[in-house]
Amino acid sequence: MGEYRNIVVLTGAGISAESGLKTFRDNNGLWEKHRVEEVATPEAFEANPTLVYQFYNQRRAQLKDSAITPNPAHLALADLEKAWKGSFLLVTQNVDDLHQRSGSVNVVPMHGQLNQARCLNSGNVSDISGVGVIDARTLCSCCNPQSAMRPDIVWFGEIPQQMGRIEQALSQADIFVSIGTSGQVYPAAGFAALASEKGAHTVELNLEQTSGSFHQGFYGPASDIVPEFVARLLGDK
Ligand code: APR
């Protein structure tokens, strides 16, 4: 597989499942216990901010659990980036910090990050990894008078972050690899088609085949198949 120069990798909740974080749409997934309309839309935040803050505070608290660490799939992608000779972009729909913790550098967290909050007045983003919980009384340090903040999460109905950078990388990609995502949520669900139209080879790595259209697929737990795929891509196998 040594013929590829520019790569875009897209990850979803499935890559973090074996680290102990729940996915959304699998059995026992997050959307079985919570209603999207109550915790993950701008309207929900207007109607009941307390519930929305609570949902994200709980998920952020999980990241501090010492048992939640990057798994071999995250680590393999960090190794891939280090060894890759052409351009490399890792786009993740995940709001955890497991890619960053494993050493990946060119990461676009297109749906935001649990460890960041956004000022409701200026839009400035600040790191809240050291803050216990945030709620309507947590104020920014960028405005005078200080303003309340919201989770830096892209909710349903909002536009994902850094779309220009992502689309440019997709249009130049020779290979596009989708890992651990059900492909139910746009715009990420359209990335494979976009890359393929521009000539990229598209590959899916997942526990099971999704309804998306890919040139090639590898199926099994991410912590097994991602390191194997990376080794193959780097020509070690
Ligand atoms: N290894 C590989 N793949 C796995 C594993 C695993 N151990 N466990 C689950 N998967 C796969 C599932 O088969 C499924 O296709 O991961 C996918 C998870 O799908 P979703 O739960 O829909 O998560 P995701 O695709 O990331 O969701 C996209 O939806 O709710 C929003 O904003 C949220 O970013 C999220 C977006």
Summarize the structure.
The chain has ten helices and nine strands. It has 237 residues and is an alpha/beta fold.
Q: Which percent range describes the beta-strand content?
A: 15-25%
Query: What would you report as the Rg, rounded to the nearest angstrom?
Result: 18 Å
Instruction: Supply the number of helical segments.
Output: 10
Q: What portion of residues is helical?
A: 25-40%
Order of helices and strands: EHHHHHHEHEEEEHEHEEH
Bound molecules: adenosine-5-diphosphoribose
Total domains, how many?
2
Pick out the low-confidence regions.
none
Going by CATH, the homologous superfamily of the largest domain would be: TPP-binding domain
Describe this structure in words.
The protein is an alpha/beta fold and 237 residues long. The chain is 33% helix and 19% strand. It contains 10 helices and 9 strands. The strands form 2 sheets. A 6-stranded parallel sheet has the order 3-2-1-7-8-9, with helices on both faces. Strand 7, helix 9 (191-197) and strand 8 (201-206) form a beta-alpha-beta unit. Helix 6 (72-83) packs parallel to helix 10 and helix 8 packs across helix 9. The protein is globular, with a radius of gyration of 18 Å. The mean pLDDT is 96.
